[in-house]
Amino acid sequence: MEPRRAIPDVKFNGKNVSKRLQGYLKTLTYTDVAGGESDSISISLQNIDTKWLNEWYPSKGDEISAGISFKNWEEENQDLYLECGDFILDDIKFSGGPMSASFGALSIPVNEAFKATERTKTWKDVTIRQMAEEISGRYSLELIYDADEIQISSVEQSENTDSAFLYDICKTYGLAMKVYRYKIIIFDKGKYEAKEPVDTIRRCDFVDDEWEYLDTLVGTYTGARISYTSGQDNEEISVYVGKIKEDAPGSRVLKVNEQASDLSDAGYKAAAKVNESNESATTISGRIFAKPKIVAGVTISIEGLGKADGKYFVDKVTTEISSGKTTMQMELHKVQERIAYISQVVTDGSAAEEKKTYNVGDIVYFKGGTHYVSSYSDAIGYEVGPGTAKITIANGSGQAHPWHLITENWSETHVYGWVDDGTFE
Asked: Which end of the chain has fewer CB atoms within 10 angstroms, the N or the C?
């Protein structure tokens, strides 16, 4: 029976150097993030014969491609492969006593202007996708956009690099962004939190029982309120988004200090702020023996930790290969109901006007029709009559029937389930 092994697969400028690394490699560390920063790789070597300081000396800006081959990892004769991505070498370090070398690289475009050249531009009447398309095209990067279309009336890019500006825009409107394999990837984290877990982690999976669970009330909220000044008449407008009514028992409201151009802009920004804050409410970090299926951006199940059990989103994974073992350090946040802002904008043929927005806790009039047992397209539905009801969940993960209503008066209507857009007012 062959032992299981993790083997680095590394190329410098297209040339495979995996065999050259044998006998020199101390550790290879790959850091994979769901968004907000670049993936990175670090290679630590022994350099007793000084070859890496002489004839094998690399150059800043070298292109590094890396992956990890897992041989017989989960069962005999089954090989797995983790594609780490493409990186640009930006940090070279040598030291003595004993002689050693370390190289650090980031997942960024070859064209360093993406992170180096500052630009000033006013973007007007544009979506986040359109901004990302222009910026990605400038550096010959592929764009993968997996989120709603968010319209922005005006935003200023002031002496800011394209990289920092686009990261900041995504964060402001509640989206995640990362650069991977010459692609800019922008996605709605809520969509990915709704996906099925790829694996289950139990207490016995943590190396030397090394884990930490944090559950806090500080910095967690049931809703957010944002106020802004209308450009037309200088009137102050205040917007609330939340899971429950603002004055309901147990309500905790985040006051958001952001400029906004209109109701939709304010709603997206408020929801983004409160969701970002709530991600830190319940977290787990810990070190496990490597599981190649667990990468940043997926969900996993935690079992065997009592009240800490549940579904978690993987924010960051740091995989380290050394002579002794291959481990992953994980940073997770517990998946909770997100506060969603649903843009209610229509066009009458000549001008756009905003429809009424609805939030969790609103009392509405259900017009009668079908309510479903889940928000998914294949859900079973039943006919019920009209009447008043309360919105208890918005933007259901199945998306086909996005609103959950519960009747306020059983003598009027028996609605108690998921319904479609436009079925209430």
From this structure: N
Cα 128–Cα 129–Cα 130 angle in degrees, nearest 5 = 90
pLDDT band with cut points at 50, 70 and 90 for residue 230: low
Buried b (16+ CB within 10 A) or exposed e, 340-352: bbbbeeeeeeeee
Segment 177-219, tens digit of pLDDT = 999 888 999 999 999 999 999 999 999 999 999 999 999 988 8
Which pLDDT does position 344 carry in this prediction? 46
CA 261 to chain centre: 25
2 in Cβ contact with 10 (< 8 Å): no
Nearest CA among 395, 132, 353 for reference residue 264 = 353
Among 360, 367, 356, 361, which Cα is nearest to 424's? Answer: 367
Q: How many residues does the chain have?
A: 425
Q: Give the tens place of pLDDT for each residue, 72-115.
A: 888 888 889 999 999 999 999 999 989 999 999 998 776 778 88
User: Quick one: DSSP state of residue 374?
Assistant: S
365 touches 375 (CB < 8 A): no
Predicted TM-score (pTM) of this structure = 0.78
Judge contact between 171 and 275, C-beta under 8 A. no
- Cα separation, 243 vs 180, in Å, equals 34
Residues 390, 363: Cα–Cα separation, whole Å: 5
Structure tokens at 149: 């279309």
Give the C-alpha separation, 362 to 246, whole Å. 10
Task: State the pairing for strand pair 5-12/63-71.
Answer: antiparallel
107 close to 85: Cβ distance less than 8 angstroms: yes
The CA-CA-CA angle for residues 261, 266, 132, to 5°, reads: 75
CB 395 within 8 A of CB 338: yes
Dist. CA 2–CA 24, nearest whole Å: 24
Instruction: Report the first-to-last Cα separation within the chain, whole angstroms.
Output: 67
Q: With the CA atoms of 29, 31, 32 and 37 taken in that order, what torsion angle do they form, in degrees rounded to the nearest 10?
A: -150
Task: Give the integer Cα–Cα distance in Å for 398 and 194.
Answer: 8
Q: How far apart are CA 260 and CA 153, in angstroms?
A: 10
d(CA 45, CA 12): 15
Q: What is the C-alpha separation between 393 and 382, in angstroms, rounded?
A: 19
Strand 223-229 with 253-256, pairing: parallel
Q: For residue 387, list its beta bridge partners.
A: 366
Q: Output phi, psi for 171, to 5 deg.
A: -65, -40
